[in-house]
Protein: Putative isomerase
Amino acid sequence: MDIKIYQVDAFAERVFKGNPAAVCPLDEWPSDELLQNIAQENNLSETAFFVAEGKGYSLRWFTPGGEVDLCGHATLAAAHVLFKHLGYSDDVIAFHTISGALLVGKSGTGYSMSFPASNIQPIDASSDLISALGVTPVETLSDFDYVVVLENESQVASVSPDFAKLSNLGLRGVVVTAPGESVDFVSRAFFPKYNVNEDPVTGSAHCELAPYWAKKLGRTQLVAKQLSKRTGIVQCEVVHDRVILSGNAVDYLSGTITIET
Structure:
């Protein structure tokens, strides 16, 4: 069995920046075990797999530790592969996912993705969460992640989590955020239970962050920066119950996975 594979740096203007994702176009779905094994072998934060479905594509995402319900950067990478390498000619790609329909089109900054906005809600920070991060939050919220608001960008940059403790918390992971110095807000994202201690640029987390900061800052268009070592810029717009995330993508490699059966 041969499977085409592309590796794309998403939310990046040049290679070695943003968040790398593997993308595997498929003719039909193989076993979940094979999908998980490929994701483990790739050892990237996400591997995206898609199969043509009607006028769109069925899309799934796997980390080395398991399948996830939503992933922004690997969706952007999958759209980039379709537009640039596989001859997709319509204006917008419809991806059918476990989180509903995700629409991706070309934009002035590369690609724009329409995702469902999070219904993020304030919660009391647990002692376990505070101990795992080693900082006292200004505010704590949650939806599919814990979102921990800190005072400033410097605090976000200097957070040094205890990943073993983070992996024992509920929800998908932990995102720390604060107002930015040169952008509207900054963040970092940690998902150790999925074998991704720190994700370089997390599109799905901005479905939680953009609505929060739009309300705090009183505007719907925002520029965000994720403060990982690779860094990445995410353009955000909140439109009713959707978040429009925009960014570019660049190719790193393409090849073929060969699996003897």
In short: The longest strand covers residues 249-258. Residues 2-116+246-258 form a domain with the Diaminopimelate Epimerase; Chain A, domain 1 fold (CATH 3.10.310.10). The mean pLDDT is 95.
